[in-house]
Design goal:
Elements lengths: L15 H4 L3 H14 L15 E3 L2 E3 L9 H5 L23 H6 L13 H16 L4 E6 L11 E2 L3 E2 L9 E6 L3
Bound molecules: protoporphyrin IX containing FE.
């Protein structure tokens, strides 16, 4: 199966075994999460037992240490043209190990998102329901500009500028028959 093959028909309920092989769908979810950032700045952790040694640096024990999902997810050396939504970068052949190393939208390490697998299942199913063949909602952008959604402010998660109206769409139900 290639990502250009239709992976299900109108009559068929999408099942995980097929969704998991749909490379372009998986790439869209990954790229969407990359630009959503998750927790923009992960909660700081502290080692209360011993100093942390990293390369030439020694960080005294008890020092809060955190990482920036923004900086990791938009590193131009890892993701060229980092603010562009380009699912193709995650496709086999383009996908490089450092992209997984930098991807921080679901946290990293021992406190990584507990719902990580559910996130991928739900998001793939959701995209199929919204954009797959068969009966589905047709969404048309309504009075929304990029600045209404672009991450500008760091809360725990990323926020758009003050006064932004958020993403607004008109929803129409489309019957495929
Ligand atoms: C798109 C959806 C989601 C995103 C972007 C997301 C993102 C994150 C991030 C970035 C963290 C780590 C925060 C930190 O470093 O302190 C986290 C932690 C966590 N997430 Fe999610 N999450 C999502 C959905 C879910 C779902 C569906 C569940 C549960 C069903 C879940 C449960 C948790 C829990 C329990 C933690 C805390 C883990 C710990 O501290 O040990 N998340 N999530």
């Amino acid at each position: 199966m290639t990502f250009s093959d239709p992976i299900w028909t109108k009559q068929e309920t999408p099942v995980w075994i097929k969704l998991n092989k749909a490379e372009y769908l998986k790439a869209c979810v990954k790229e969407g999460l990359r630009l959503f950032f998750g927790a923009l700045r992960g909660s700081a952790r502290r080692n209360l037992v011993a100093p942390i040694v990293y390369k030439d640096w020694v960080i005294p024990f008890g020092t809060p240490v955190g990482m920036s999902a923004w900086m990791l997810n938009t590193d131009p050396e890892v993701y060229p043209d980092p603010l562009a939504f380009r699912p193709e970068r995650w496709l086999p052949g383009n996908h490089k190990p450092e992209m997984d190393r930098n991807f921080a939208s679901l946290g990293r390490g021992s406190r990584t998102c507990l719902g990580i697998h559910l996130v991928y299942v739900f998001m793939r199913h959701l995209l199929v329901a919204m954009f797959g063949p068969g009966d589905r909602p047709e969404l048309t952008l309504y009075e929304t500009e990029e600045s209404d959604v672009a991450t500008t402010v760091s809360g725990l998660s990323g926020l758009a500028k003050r006064g932004a109206r958020g993403l607004r769409v008109v929803v129409e139900w489309m019957s495929a028959c």
